[in-house]
Structure formats: C-alpha cells, structure tokens
Amino acid sequence: MSSVPDGKKLVRSPSGLRMIPENGAFSSPFSLDEPQWVPDKECPRCMQCDTKFDFLTRKHHCRRCGKCFCDKCCSKKVLLPRMCFVDPVRQCAECSLVSQKEMEFYDKQIKVLTNGATFTVTLGTSEKSESMVCRLSNNHRYLFLDGDSHFEVELSRVSSFQILTEGFTPGEKDIHTYTSLLESQYITEGGNTRASGMLLQYKAVGSQDLQQLKLNAREDNKTASAWLVAMHKAAKLLYESRDQ
C-alpha cells in the first residue's frame, strides 16, 4: 500500500555505498539493479582500447555496465542515482555520458513531477470529467490524483502511455504520438509541438483488466505542459528499467 512508510538502509556493495529501501518491493520504478561484473579472468585486456592488463596497468569495472576497462577508459566518477549510490562512482566514458544526461531528470524533471499540475481527468469511457491535481509520489511509485475524489495509479502496473501533442506546423492540427513502456516508441523531441494531454492504460491492484485514464491540459496551462514533458522523459526511464 502506498501509505506504508518507505524506510531506507545504508549498505556497502563492491561498487560503493548505497541507500536502498529496506523492503525491495518499495524500490523506485526508475531504479536499476547493479550489474554483474565481468570476471577478472575473462578480461585480460581493456574492453575499450584493448590495452593489456599487467602489474602497472590495472583493471577497473564500470559500476553501471560491469565491463572491465583500464584507468584511462574508466576514470570518471559520476553520480548514479538510479542505482542509489550515495557518492559518485567510477564509470566508463559511454556510461558516464548516459548518467550525466539522466541527472537532468533527477535534478529538474522529478521536481516538476512531484510538484504536480492540474488537468481535466476522465476515467475510462465515462463522459464525466473532473479537475484534478496529478503528481508523482515522493517514492516515485505512484501517480496521485486529487480533486473532489482521490485515487492513485501504481507506475509498475501501467502498460502504456500515450502523450497527446498539438502541432503548429501549417497543415497539421493534432498529432497523437504513442509512447509505450513495453515498446521502444517515443515522442520525437523538439519541433513546434505542445504536449496537450496524456492517455494511459493500467491494471488496478487485484485486476488483470486494462483501465484507461485520460488527462487533458488547458492550452494556457504551461505548468501542465511541462509536467507532461517530464512524464515523457520518465516513461523512457521506466521502459529502460523494465527492459533490464
């Protein structure tokens, strides 16, 4: 239940100190598991530049991918919040770039999502709609919707997102681009479009039937549009976590 406190504990892994939930069931859906390190005996050479390891050239494991590199190819220490590391950890050049890009999501987009925004919400095929504030829970596991009524959607039970955008290119009126957590199809970023709404399908707890939820933002609601953009980026991370 979402009302259960999410206690955390500090643990030491071979990669560094991590602050993780005491109960693994309460892990953030954006989190990634630590990779299995490539065994030392299986990597006599750097997996990037092919330098041979010896007494002077030591091997290092990237904390994100688990591959084996020389110091030159794995020298950067970068924050990796998706694996709950407390301090920056050693990563290869490719992984460090990915982690640095993700930090924008954690620095900016998470705040946008947890602050919430106001939408016109329609449940299922109902003709009735309600003005509600939609926000991401502090543990990142739920979407809370509050208005005259309250309900929540567990992100782990969402099967797909459909971000609705309005195009401003001559000849284009409405662009409906499909964003799925189960397929690698995403909105094309940039261009003259505005995020105008979201349609998601999910399974309620205790049910295997898909339910539908639609959020519409008013044209002048910049906060809601920014929230939808942040949710689009969140969907990418959710897909990646599921595909791990």
Automatic annotation (TrEMBL):
SUPFAM superfamilies: FYVE/PHD zinc finger. This is Zinc finger FYVE domain-containing protein 21-like isoform X1. Residues 40-95 form the FYVE-type domain. The lineage of its organism: Eukaryota, Metazoa, Chordata, Craniata, Vertebrata. It comes from Huso huso. Pfam families: FYVE, ZFYVE21_C. Keywords: Metal-binding, Zinc, Zinc-finger.
